[in-house]
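QA checklist item 7 of 12: single-chain prediction sanity check.
[x] sequence parsed
[x] length recorded as 212
[x] structure emitted
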Amino acid sequence: MIRARAYKQDWIPSPVQQASYNITGTVATPTMNPAGGTYQTSQSVVISCSTAGVTIRYTIDGSDPTDTSMIYANPIICPLDSYTLIKARAYKQDWLPSPIANSSYWITGTVATPSFDPSGGTYIGAQTVTISCATPGAQIRYTTDGTMPTVTSFLYTAPLAVNTTTTLKKPGDLRIAGLPVKWPQRCTPSTALWPAPLLILPPEIMRRRSTW
């Protein structure tokens, strides 16, 4: 508060004048934790502001926050398989509103395990194997040489023809879409880990099964 009075010789002093000055400023920009980005698990977004005593208002529909937007009170949940754009602005009486903060959250998840049809097992004749995945839009990559599938492995686009040559030519691991499958050591289906590989046995081997 400032008080002032004016004086002049032979004059009566002036009345006292006073004035109060409340210096505020601009509210600090809100921050979000975690930061925007792509995540594989659901996220709880906490919004905070370094200016004390503020009210944070936010939107998730893409519009800019105003002094009538939703009041932030609890963490904002970003669920699996979603995209959320959060915009926030902080307000305080007699202060200028903060700049608008915004963060985008892409929440993905874990792709569902591929499935085989027919399932792994021992078969007398050649088989046509269909691979599917319950996650919409997923690409299935596969290998038949014992290596782990990567994003550059064969792209599955059509059922696989599995015959005697491709089954028995390369003993060891068979991995399709990242699932390791062990060949049984003595071609006994009950010893295979699920899902078991497709074993197509020619007649001459079938006739010798009793000697295994």
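[x] summary fact logged: Confidence is low (pLDDT under 50) at residues 165-210.
[ ] second reviewer sign-off
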